[in-house]
Write a structure and sequence with these properties.
four-stranded antiparallel β-sheet; globular; mainly beta; 123 residues; seven-stranded mixed β-sheet; 49% strand
């Protein structure tokens, strides 16, 4: 079965850190670009970052630049999102998506989505 499964979310205090994982199964992650998104209650979905097959990273959301880092470990079929200096505004459901084969991060075309992991930032 072709899946993306996120984990690593939780409740942390402002200023804390979390590392999210997006594990792929049923396909070879090496040949795909993978993106992270988030959706906060009452807000539109936001694209956070994308990492391509050659480890090139693009950060779409200005508010996370300098705080979040996207990376990948193809041997573990996993894409990570390291989140530092977390703020209450980062509270959201975070999920990853596979960029459509043959497309790239800049095409914003996705054919597989995970279910998400909840991140809550609160004191």
């Amino acid at each position: 079965q072709t899946l993306l499964v996120e984990s690593g979310g939780g409740l942390v205090q402002p200023g804390g850190s979390l590392k999210l994982s997006c594990v792929a199964s049923g396909f070879i992650i090496d040949i795909f670009d993978i993106a992270w998104f988030r959706r906060a209650p009452g807000r539109e979905r936001e694209g956070i970052a994308c990492i391509d097959r050659n480890w090139g990273a693009t950060y779409w959301e200005d508010s996370v630049k300098g705080r979040f880092t996207i990376s990948r470990d193809n041997a573990k079929s996993t894409v990570y999102l390291q989140m530092n200096s977390l703020k209450p505004d980062d509270t959201a459901l975070y999920y990853c998506a596979r960029v459509t084969h043959g497309s790239s991060c800049s095409d914003h075309s996705y054919d597989l989505w995970g279910q998400g992991t909840q991140v809550t930032i609160s004191s």
